[in-house]
Each structure stands twice: as structure tokens, then as C-alpha cells.
Amino acid sequence: MNKHMTLKAARCALPLLLAGVALPAAASNPSFNKNAYVANQSDNTVSVIDTATNAVTATVPVGTTPAGVAVSPNGADVYVANSNDNTVSVISAATNGVLATVPVGGTPKAVVVSPNGASVYVANSNANSVSVIDAATHTVVATVPVGNAPLSIAISPNGARVYTGNVGDGTVSVIDTAKRQLAATVPAGDSPFGLGMGPLGARLYVANLGSNNVSVIDAFSNRNVGTVTAGNGVDAVTTSPIGIPVYVANLSDNSVSVINPLNKALIATVAVGSAPVAMAVSERSARIYVANAGDNTVSVINAFNNKVISTIPVGSSPSAVATQPQ
């Protein structure tokens, strides 16, 4: 079978594979597992989007200049990194109220939650560190030094490793979460601005804003094993629930590149809003939510046909987006 037939077969099989993993039974609590959360930097709020209707259902005031957002594995808590007041706001998904405000390191830019929900990791860009928050007590229990100016963060599916993209020195730091210490430093491209972890934990994708490409890191060996070309101003990357395709946000092109990571082939280029800076995939629908900082919207891409099916007005300068796990 030639490579063109193989690619064609993969494209045909993709919607079926996505359908098999992306449409679980509805959660018993209707307030959980159907929302996307958007951090709006310029108005200090989080927009709550109902992913069933693609409408904003609430706006939650948080700290100053929210730059990162993550949701706990059970969908109950939403964590927001507030970069200009050095805190993390904890939002209840059930009430859309702030439960706690946690002081962290200097200029927190990104946040991620462990798969078991017990720990929250915050990348502090001006402190060159990661704060580890105990989710039960809402207190910082450790601080781990990393590379220069970490602006993004990711975690392995088993929770054993946390990764930061360090814009200041072009590296990715690898944290051993059991020891709470740096395990490795991996060279990436110029200005690694965004990270995306594959669902099996084998590959970490690094969006390099300065070099307009995506570095592929072998998570088992902590080696940079190649690059993938995308558009102009590559600043965010994520994967489908099955790991293929990979979605890359292109800040300067106002587009999202859809890429087959196996052969690095471009599957599609999707026009979105102005200055896309962050993405998240809904496991429920396999839709991709793209935060467009330049026009205060979120574009919703249908993964089955790579078309924008909705454009949602949100707050001012949306900088991060996360969806509730299923």
C-alpha cells in the first residue's frame, strides 16, 4: 500500500476513532463535564462556555491578569493563574464562585492539575519555578526551580512528569513529581511558547514561537526527536483524544494547522479569529476550542470536518482555555 492510500485510510478512520472515544455517557450532575473555561487577561474574568450550546453562561471575576486555566479531573474545580498578582484562583464549577485564592511565585502564567486531582502545578515565569499546590488544603507545599521564563506547562497522563516550556532559554524542563525536583532539561526551538502532551504520554509537542515549528520530544528518553512545520507565529499545540491529529495555533496567520504527527503531513489549515493563543479539546465532542486574543472570541472547530462551527464572544484578551474532563 502506498503512502497516499495509507494517509487516505487514516483520514477516513479518524472520525470513527474519535467517535469511539469522544462521546461518553452524560454525567449525572448537569453542572459538570460540559463546560469550557476561558481566562480573559484584560478584564480579570473567566468566561464559562456551555459546550453543548456554545454559549457563555457565566462570567467569574478572578485575580489580576489571568493567564492560565486548568480543570480538575472530576470537573469540580477550576484553577486560574493570575499573572499580575501572583495568585491562583480556585473556582467551584458547581457555583461559579471563587473558593480560594492561593499565593504562588512571581508572575504565574500557566497551570495544570495532576491526573488524580491531588496536586496543582503552576509555572511562575518571573521566578523560574513551579509552585506545587495541595488541592485539598489550597496551600503551596513545594517549589521546584526550572528553566528561564516558563510560560507553559503540561503533565504526563500518569502524573509522573511535569513539563515547562522555557521561553528565556529555549528549553523544556522535566520535573519528577514524586521527588519534586528537576529530572532533565531538553533543548527545544526558539521561544517554546506552548506545550501539548500526547494522550499516551509518549510524545510531548512544543510550539516554538520564534522558529515557527513544533518540536517533538520523546517523553521516555527526554530527547528532541524532530520538528514539524506549521504556520507563522506558532504559539500553542494540542492533540485529539487519541493523539492524532495534532492541532497547532498560528498567531500571525490567524489559523490552526491540523497535522498528522506520524508522517508530519498537513491535513488542513483552519481559519479562526484574530491572534489565536491557546487551545483545548473537548473529550465529549472532539471539538477544538481556540482562544483568539485579538478579537475577544473563541472559535469552535469540528474535528470531523475541520470547519469552524461557532464563534463565541468572550471577555477581553482571552489568553487560555480549558475544558472539563469527561
Structure overview:
The chain is mostly beta strands. Helix content is 6%, strand content 53%. It has one helix at 3-22; strands at residues 35-40, 45-50, 55-61, 66-71, 77-82, 87-92, 98-103, 108-113, 119-124, 129-134, 139-145, 150-155, 161-166, 171-176, 181-187, 192-197, 203-208, 213-218, 223-229, 234-239, 246-250, 255-260, 265-271, 276-281, 287-292, 297-302, 307-313, 318-323. Strands 3-2-1-28 form a four-stranded antiparallel β-sheet, with no helix packed on it. The protein has a four-stranded antiparallel β-sheet with strand order 4-5-6-7, with no helix packed on it. Strand 20 and strand 21 (246-250) form a beta hairpin. The longest helix has 20 residues, at 3-22. The termini are far apart. Residues 1-31 have low confidence and may be disordered.
